[in-house]
Amino acid sequence: MSQTKITVLCENTAGGPMGLMGEHGFSALIEKDGQKTLFDTGQGMTLANNAQVLRINLAEIKMVILSHGHYDHTGGLPAVLHPSRGMEVIAHPDIFAKKYAELDTPGGKRSIFIGIKYSQDYLEGTLQARFKLIRKFAEIAPGIFFSGEVPRETDFEHPDTRLKVEHDGKITDDPLLDDISLLIETDQGPVILLGCAHAGVVNVMNHFSAKTGHKKFHALIGGTHLGFMTGPGQQLERSMDAFDDYKVDLIAVSHCTGQEAASVCYNRFKDRFAFASAGWSKTF
Ligand SMILES: [Fe+2]
Ligand SMILES: [Fe+2]
Fold it and tell me: Mean pLDDT per 10-residue run, the chain (284 residues)?
């Protein structure tokens, strides 16, 4: 096998070098077997800037994978789609659903649109994206596995009930079946890359374990959604127990993990913990 490098390009916070910017969102570059694959694109305000600061040429990216259809993971698509090359974009078919967040504001509850801000026609027509929309677990490149829909099986991971979806004018809780993650085989063991883990980070680990037979994961990188826990149960504690059960050597959290949950993880895992902000990278 050859080395695999993962670099966080967009994140809520910016690390070094100088000139990186933060935005609420997530994007990571996977360099494997000489091929560059982009996982998520952030909100759209920092991808091009941060790539330039990190000397990453977005024109060299061969494939884009979207973790789900929220604006903070898909807003940077135009920065990476090259009409002349017809970029392959892999995601779950539900990414184009009309997604909303119901937020408490001083004036009462308000729904704001948080889906993809570009139409499918614009992305496929003007920007020549070639969408490959798949629902099931699949190896999408040598050693890179797409989770497909993740079964919700744990009793302590609860959906974020503020997240909604509209079908035929009716707004309901968004099951977020489009929430997918990646498993990347590396020289140091399997690495899981998460966008928001709306499916529940432990459900994601259990699903990859069932599909690949792995009982240990070397690293967990990305958004864990532990900062938006809702409902009963000790989701954070039990998720951290699962990180130990799967003997995760590196817990590199980002984005919707939230600062409070990240601090709790740091206090428990110490040397095994990293905060993966924009600019963070690791070679496996
Ligand atoms: Fe999300
Ligand atoms: Fe997110």
Answer: 92 96 98 97 98 97 98 98 92 98 92 96 97 98 98 93 95 97 98 97 98 98 83 82 98 94 95 98 98
CA distances from 15 to 11, 24, 28, 52, 175 (A): 9, 14, 14, 15, 33
Q: How far is the CA of 254 from the centre of ligand 1 (A)?
A: 12
Domain 4-283 belongs to what architecture? 4-Layer Sandwich (3.60)
Ligand whose nearest atom lies closest to the CA of 27: 2
What SS3 class is residue 133? strand
Distance 205 CA to ligand 2 centre (A): 19
Per-residue tokens: 52: 């330039």
pTM of model > 0.90? yes
Q: What angle in degrees, to the nearest 10, is found between the helix axes of 235-245 and 259-269?
A: 40
Cα of 196 to ligand 1 centre, how many Å? Answer: 5
Instruction: Give dist(CA 31, CA 143) in Å, integer.
Output: 12
Parse the chain into domains and list their residue ranges. 4-283
Q: What angle do CA 156, 205, 178 make, to 5 degrees?
A: 85
Residues in Cβ contact with 105 at an 8 Å cutoff, skipping those fewer than 6 apart: none
Cα of 2 vs centre of ligand 2, distance in Å, is 30
